[in-house]
Amino acid sequence: LALGLLEYNNDWEAIQKRFLPCKSTHQIFVRQKNRSSAKATDNPVK
Questions:
Q1: Is 42 helix (H, G, I), strand (E, B) or coil?
Q2: Domain span including residue 21
Q3: Which end of the chain, N or C, is less packed with Cβ atoms under 10 Å?
């Protein structure tokens, strides 16, 4: 997910095709939202 965000920014369909084909674009969006929230612990997406 972190690599996809670096490469494609918020192009969820491109991230899905390249990195996470088994996940829906909505699942990828929600995962990114949760990982970058203020309450999340330090992680590569943040």
A1: coil
A2: 2-35
A3: C
